[in-house]
Amino acid sequence: MRPSSTESSIRTKRDVSSRTQPYKLEIIQAILSGTLDPDGNEADHGDSVPSTYRHGAFEDLCRGPHVNRASEIDPAALKVTRIAGAYWLGTGRDQHVVILHRAPLGSHERFVGFLIEHFAGAFPVWLSPVQARLIPVADRHVEFARKISKTLNDLDFRVDVDNANECMQNKIRRAQLEKIPFMLIVGDREAAAEHVSIRLRSGENLGPTPVTQFIERLGWLVRNRSLALHPA
Predict the structure, then answer these.
(1) What is the mean pLDDT for each group of 10 consecutive residues in the chain (232 residues)?
(2) Domain end marker among 71, 97, 123
(3) Does pTM top 0.85 for this prediction?
(4) Rounded to whole angstroms, how far apart are CA atoms 197 and 185?
(5) Last residue of a domain, one of 69, 97, 125
(6) What are phi and psi of 157, to 5 degrees?
(7) Is 37 found in the same domain as 73?
(8) Buried (b) or exposed (e) across 133-149, using 16+ Cβ within 10 A?
């Protein structure tokens, strides 16, 4: 976007508005005359240089100067009644409208970058792209792992199954490197008892736990936006 504050640009905008946007004509004429503002009050343009704003083929009028970044804004300008625009009500008086734009972060990408740096990739469980991974001990446990994964996925938890043809320790190591919060180991005993053996990405082994109990644990951590992997 590029600001333009020349009087000729404002007059051009007046000519266009008179044909397509007559409700702006009063505002433009008041600015050019320097006598009255659109509400009929004495105009005060000393600290408010009129300008137009151009973005490609679009150009519009502003009753004040433009700045390139928020740090350039004069604190005195944050008096909303002085920077307000107006729109025509059809009753003989214009109605003030105030728009305050706030952007604490420059972009979503930058915000995500802050999160990744802050957590060093080890996101809390509610932010983690994969919240838990099922790791079957052997091929015969894959079906049970997929059953648990489907149950959790149906509850809107982000869970997958590592059924690679590798040893269990390699799967655990890979999940730790990916910083997945929970590894759920399933073998013969877990399948028989409808349990999962929980291991944290920190290496802590919590041992066998009923599937229903793990679901309650995961749900609590997500609902409460917990930064820890242990319920309070």
Answers:
(1) 46 52 62 55 52 63 62 62 58 63 69 87 95 96 96 97 93 96 96 96 94 96 92 72
(2) 97
(3) no
(4) 5
(5) 97
(6) -90, 150
(7) yes
(8) bbbbbeeebbebbeebb
